[in-house]
Amino acid sequence: MSNLLGSPAGLRSMAGSSAALELGSELHPLLLRYRRAILVALHLLLVPLAYRLAFELRFDFAIPGKVLRAFWLTLPLLILVRLGTFAVFRVYRGWWRHVGMYDLVELVKALAVGSGLFVAGLYLTGEIRLLPRSILVLEWGIALLCFGGIRFGVRWLREGRAMAVGSRAGKRTLIVGAGPTAASLIRQVRLEPESGIYPVGLVDDDPASQRLRIHSVPVLGTTADLRRIIAMHRIRLVVAATPSATREEMQRIASKCADLDVELKVVPSICELLDGTAKLSQLRAVPVEELLGRRPISLELSRVKEDLGGKVVLVTGGAGSIGSELARQVAEFGPERLILLEQAESPLYYTNLDLRKAHPELQIVPVIADVTDPDRLERIFAEHRPDYVFHAAAYKHVPMMEANPSEAIRNNVFGTLNVAECARRHGVEKMVLISTDKAVHPSSVMGATKRVAERLILGLPEFVNSRTEFRAVRFGNVLGSDGSVVPLFKRQIAAGGPVTVTDPDVTRYFMTIPEAVQLVLEAAALPEAGRRIAMLDMGKPVRILELAENLIRLSGLEPYTQMPIVFTGLRPGEKLHEELMSELESTVPTAVEKIRIVCVGEEVGALLRLGLEQLGRALASGSNDAQLAALCALVPECVPPLRTAGEEAARRIAAGTPIASAGSRRYRVAADGA
Q: Half-sphere exposure of residue 209, counting CA atoms within 13 Å on the CB side?
């Protein structure tokens, strides 16, 4: 018996049985069902095996009879102690195919505590005198080898099989970064041969990482050696596994990959891994956020939860790029009810479905309505009694609004006025207007209408003196939103080009959709932002030409040679460079580092009301000239080409030859206190 228990063949048999259990559980449901009982039985066999082997080694496989009797006398106590401590430390619960250092530490703890209890039991029973002290040390070491070795053996059998399969297929891949992310990625892709990745080597700029090997994959050099390494090792895919890489570093890597016709991918973010939407081996294209000239801003939103928790929140334009993201983020803070007001039926349908799936506990009310219909808005506010209103509904495309000024005025100005009046009449706590940097020195109809919207909610006496606290949030272009340049560039690249850029020098301020919405939520909660305009520090403006070039490179192509870029000239109403403030404005800091408050040094009130009344009459008349003249009168800081168009319209009106367009609807501004 001693020869059988202590023989290498016996150990291999035990390991093979355990491996069959772990690997076969995928194939045999019965094994999976009784897995824990089988593991307890296996440990029950291994405990006496390790104990007997300690005796055999201590006495050179010739155990004296007296000592052998001591073995049988003390074995039940050891089995009881070992199985008990294994249960307390949950040794039976782990999957051996995923065993790691944490499991090994827990095993060491269980064995140490068990040995301590065993020795204590021997002292209490007086049987300690029967055993040589070296037996206790040998038993602990052999038990660690048996229980730990069998676990890591199962993992080796599984990963070795996967490695053998994975080494025969997959793209030859170079991993940028030699940190924990890269190590996890290498192990994951080896376990999943279907990932199509064969890690050839790594590059890392840390001198301490040079000439190291991670899971047998060598570090071949630094990012400065990318061209040489890619060519020498016939690399077809580069994977960025460096969460700390800067935008400039990512763009440099993308440029080198494009030059050598090598695909570039990045590992999923930690958020995607945590929420289960992606696995480590599911690589993705470099996100558009990498094209910003700065790190995306993440704000502390603890005060937002206090502000929104348990409230009824209404989001206008609730299915648009900003509105839908607002709804998604608001839902995270536990409102009592979330109302999505939108005139586009299909986008609202899908946004509602997504939110209901993500937050089944939340009452979500989709409402199809037009903000220019005051009677419909009145019924909605009376029925739902919102505490908060985020007003994101607006027409935003500059060239489209240049061609349709009446719709921009109707929706952006009088739609905002309708929502604000309902908010005031129904005692809404706060209303937040989503504005734009195009409202500063507006050169377009769209920008001017948004500036008027800012002025009316912050300047009309009935809003200034109401219980409702009105605020505005101003930010720049949004990466990835519907109609923005990034989706346009992607469609053009997918179609084979050319990529169209208005002017080689044109610049814009950019934000990601999530950080734009974070700004809105934070500004809504900041006490000092009440009845003012909040603005985010958006860093330096981005050249649209560089944005297009980088996006082409990140798509695996070279600008101008493999993908042409055509300059089309500025479109109607567009400026070469956007601004964040006019000469009438200044900013002051807030408690949030990246948010500033815009202070406007202008008097509004009666003149604003008169201007809105004139704009309403011009809209009802259907005259484009009357609308442009009235709009420019409301925004005297406007600049060409809008200023030029307004002045020409005023001259035509004075000469009695206005340009008219169809329109008959009447718009009014409520009297003070109405």
A: 21
CA distances from 631 to 26, 61, 634 (A): 70, 102, 5
Q: Tell me the sheet residues that pair with 432.
A: 390, 471
Backbone angles phi, psi at 33, to 5 degrees: -65, -40
CA distance 556 to 566: 19
Exactly one of 311, 430, 438, 575 is catalytic; name it.
Answer: 438
- What CA–CA distances, in Å, run from 260 to 148, 171, 192, 199, 234? 46, 15, 28, 18, 10
- With DSSP H G I counted as helix, E B as strand and the rest as coil, what are the percentages for the chain, rounded to 5? 55, 15, 30
Question: Would you say 321 and 481 are in contact if contact means Cβ atoms under 8 Å apart?
Answer: yes
Instruction: Please indicate whether residue 279 is annotated as part of the active site.
Output: no
Task: Give 151-194 pLDDT, tens digit per residue.
Answer: 776 666 666 555 544 445 678 899 998 888 888 888 777 777 66
User: What are the phi and psi torsion angles at 174 (to 5°)?
Assistant: -110, 130
CB 538 within 8 A of CB 509: yes
Helix extents (H) in 460-543: 461-464, 485-494, 513-525
Long-range contacts of 199-202 (CB under 8 A, 24+ apart): 199/173, 199/175, 200/172, 200/173, 200/174, 200/233, 200/235, 201/174, 201/175, 201/229, 201/233, 202/174, 202/175, 202/176, 202/177, 202/178
Per-residue pLDDT tens over the stretch 51-72? 899 888 888 888 888 888 888 9
Q: Global pTM?
A: 0.64
Strands 533-536 and 197-203, bridge-based pairing: unpaired
